[in-house]
Amino acid sequence: MADVGPRVSTKLCTSKYTGRYPTVGLFDTRSREAWFCKPRDGQAIRTSHAALITGVDDATGTVWKDRFLCFWFYTPNTGSGLILGYPIDWDEAHLLVRVDPHWDYDRQRAIPPELSDQIEANLERQMKHGERVANIIRDAKPGYTFHVHYVASRAADSMFYARRVAST
Question: How far apart are CA 21 and CA 29, in angstroms?
């Protein structure tokens, strides 16, 4: 029986990444695969995450995104501005992984705010997914160091400069 529901578009995405261009991507929490938007004339970083998912329409695209952990990868000197009011040194490369303390991507359910132990365990799982993405980028040997940030909807729930990944 074929997998029903959302899939990552292989027309727009690849599971291989070279680190040579800024991009957005999705981590499929079910299959444990990272998908990177293809260069698309240098505009991969501006592509919406929902656009990378097939089997959806505009009305359901953002709902299906709840199965996929979103990330952005900026090569050196490709980003600008603050992230949730936090300064980033854009001369360097950065991996921003979207985390949500109250949404469990693995179990596809919301976690009530009063269950702090479950929220902590959930964030740890999301950070492990982010580490998998960081390792894929590291293994591509991009030729520069990058920083990993875990970004939530509020700065208080985020972790900036969580890890520095050295160039190999």
Answer: 24
Tokens of 14: 């690849």
CA pair distance 148, 99, nearest whole angstrom = 12
Look up tokens 């293809």; give the residue.
38
Three-state SS for 62? helix
Using CA atoms, how far apart are residues 150 and 98, in angstroms rounded to an integer? 6
Query: What's the chain's Rg over C-alpha atoms?
Result: 16
What pTM, to 2 d.p., does this model score? 0.89
Rounded Cα distance, 86 and 1, in Å: 46
User: For residue 101, what are the CA distances in angstroms to 11, 21, 70, 122?
Assistant: 31, 29, 14, 7
Query: Mean pLDDT in each 10-residue stretch from start to end of the chain (168 residues)?
Result: 69 92 93 92 80 64 70 96 96 97 92 96 96 96 97 94 91
